[in-house]
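Structure representation:
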Amino acid sequence: MITDSLEIDRARFEAETGWALKPEGACKGSVCIPLPEEPGARVDVARLAEAMGLPLVHDAEHGLWAVGPESLGGRALTTAEAPALVLPDLAGNSFELASLRGQKVLVYAWAPY
């Protein structure tokens, strides 16, 4: 999430980070991080980032802040489950990544920019 202010609307924080702020803490899927207190309608991004262990960086030149992504337990990913992905194979037929469930898969992505 990128913002120009450390105090933003709760709804914006939830929409842009994917974390739902509930009485039991910040939750995403089956993961909940307890918070010292439930945030109100406006949230202090720096306090939430610290409580949740989210990285927070500041670009003073442009007046912007960047939050996240999460790395629970020091891991880069919170889950090893890949999203639903359907792409054409070399013959032009649809190929679903989910057809390889249970197998180790390397997804290589390249962009020419």
In short: The chain is about 15% helix and 30% strand. The chain has a mean pLDDT of 86.
